[in-house]
Structures are given as structure tokens and as C-alpha cells.
Prior knowledge:
By secondary structure, the protein is of the alpha+beta class. The chain has helices at about 5-15, 40-50, 65-70, 95-100, and strands spanning about 55-60, 75-80, 85-90, 120-125, 125-130, 135-140.
Amino acid sequence: MCPNNESLSHALEHLLENLAPAEIVPNADPSAPIVCDSFTDWKRLLAEQLHTARTFEIHCWADEANEIRLALQYGTRKDTGWQYGSVIVGPVTPAFIQMLLALPQPSGTQADTKRTPFFSIFLDNGFSASHYGTEIYKQL
Length: 140
């Protein structure tokens, strides 16, 4: 015997009345990226993380000369043997924080998704932003 529309409606109403929101656990999966939908949210998250970090590591591709020069104003080149780019390391200072937070959103190719001109930024507190800030992670 098939239920009629009225009994289905009643059953649905009963189920909906008893629904409870699922528990939200932010970043329960440390391998899942943090979602940052806007450049403003990116800056806010970056600011929070910079204030708890002591050191940084920035990765730039070899052809990103301007970005390498900028990063070298706040750190030094790390010898990694990476033939395709440069790694710059240094302390997270007020000047470094100000520089990062004052950077405009990159324009040009993928301007709607890029958050930073640096290919990757790693902080010693477990925060990282790869692929120009589009993949953001925070170790628990």
C-alpha cells in the first residue's frame, strides 16, 4: 500500500520539527583548507595569524623578480636547492606585518582568486597560504 500525500506531508513535518543543527567544528580536518571568500576575509585571517607568529618563509618562482626583491627586504634567501625559485626566511616584525597587510589584491590573471603576490607564505605557528593565498591551512 502506497502512502498518500497527506500522510507523507505529516511524516515530513514530524521529521522537520525534530531536526537539530549539526555540531560545527571549525577545521576538524587539518588537511582541509580554510575557506576565505573575499580579499577582506583573507586580510583579517592573515592579520590574526601574523600576530602569533615569530618567523616566516616565503616561496617565489624564479621569474617573480619583483616579489623576490620585496621579500628580501624583510628576510634572507634560504639555500634549499630549489632550482625553480627562491625561498626567503625571516622574522615576523611589525614592518613585515605592515607590508603584507598593505599589499593590494594582485591584479591580472586570476585576480579574482589571488590573495597575495607570493606563491606561498608559511608561518612558524602552523599557518600557511599556498597558490597565491588560495589554499590556506592552519595546523591545530
